[in-house]
Specification:
315 residues; globular; 5-stranded mixed beta sheet; alpha/beta; 18% strand; binds zinc ion; Nucleotidyltransferase, domain 5
């Protein structure tokens, strides 16, 4: 039994995952990342203790997936926008001390990618790229069971590769024209806010989910917003296919719950753009672990670091 913790900008989920990658119990609470670190780590420990009691079995280790940047070797938080007071704090060490088992931390997209590669749609594949599209775009690349890392164990930020250099759309990273600033959920909302007429009736209630719903109902502005995001999603994915030609790309995240609205346009862009690589051999699929991908992936991260018997060896 592995304890799993998923730390996101808005919510923290905690669960217990068994050795087959099945989530046995799940608890959730708001992150409240703007405040101090101590009450949050105490709350995580309490949730984990409650989950362990609920399952009634001994814990072997703890895996944490977190919105980045985190240092997967030391377990410490870097400078994370959502958590201004958490830099240098070390949830892996704190939970290790509290529970008396080893604990590890990974970037959440890397963790979810590991989960998909081992227990999801990437089983028996050598090269898996996991891409999550929600309020931002995150991605993790798994090569032969190992997370691809940059220098100093850094997590490559594929969501921030520039898709449109002429764009005046600012990104949270400080650059302009990044993939996530043009193709993630907030970009869909922003485009309608800027372009639809002042009397557009749904202006006050816009979200990516609502836009997808309106697009299905035939709303023209919502349909154009979806088409635009789909084209940008396709361009970014085409770049990644051209650079990595993976066996499989697993798509997750809130926006991909409406993947059927986006996939036809994405496939058209791939066919138009990836002319020098065998792009037809790259499977484009929906992440199979669904809403639990981050938690199950966090547990898988523990195997990745700590258990040679876990299948893919230690990191
Ligand atoms: Zn950016």
């Amino acid at each position: 039994m592995i304890g799993a913790v998923d730390i996101g900008g808005t919510k923290i989920a905690v669960g217990i995952v068994n050795s087959e990658g099945r989530l046995l119990i799940r608890l959730e609470s708001p992150t409240r990342g703007g405040g101090p670190y101590e009450p949050v780590i105490e709350r995580i420990a309490w949730m984990l203790r409650t989950a362990v009691d609920g399952v009634g079995e001994r814990l072997h280790g703890i895996g944490i997936g977190s919105t980045g940047p985190v240092d997967p070797l030391t377990g410490a938080f870097g400078n994370v926008n959502f958590f201004p007071h958490w830099e240098g704090r070390n949830p892996a060490e704190d939970l290790e001390r509290n529970f008396g088992v080893s604990a590890v931390i990974e970037n959440d997209a890397d963790a979810a990618a590991l989960g998909e590669a081992s227990w999801g749609c990437g089983k028996h594949k050598s090269r898996l790229l996991y891409v999550t599209v929600g309020t931002g775009i995150g991605a993790g690349l798994i090569l032969d069971g190992k997370i691809y890392r940059g220098v100093n164990h850094s997590h490559p930020e594929m969501g921030h590769h520039v898709i449109d250099a002429s764009s005046d759309t600012s990104c949270t990273c400080g650059s302009r024209g990044c993939w996530e600033s043009l193709a993630a959920g907030p970009a869909m909302v922003r485009w309608i806010e800027r372009n639809a007429p002042a009397d557009y009736p749904y202006r006050a209630e816009l979200s990516a989910r609502r836009i997808c719903h309106l697009a299905r109902e035939g709303d023209g502005w919502a349909q154009r917003s979806v088409e635009r995001a789909a084209r940008y999603l396709g361009l970014g994915l085409a770049n990644l296919v051209t650079m990595f030609v993976p066996d499989v790309i697993a798509l997750g995240g809130g926006v991909m719950k409406s993947a059927d609205l986006f996939l036809p346009a994405i496939r058209t862009v791939l066919a138009d753009s990836c002319r020098l690589v065998p792009y037809e051999s790259t499977e484009l699929v929906l992440a199979s672990l669904g809403d639990d991908a981050n938690l199950i992936g966090a547990a898988r991260a523990w195997y990745h670091h700590c258990a040679s018997a876990g299948g893919n060896g230690a990191d």
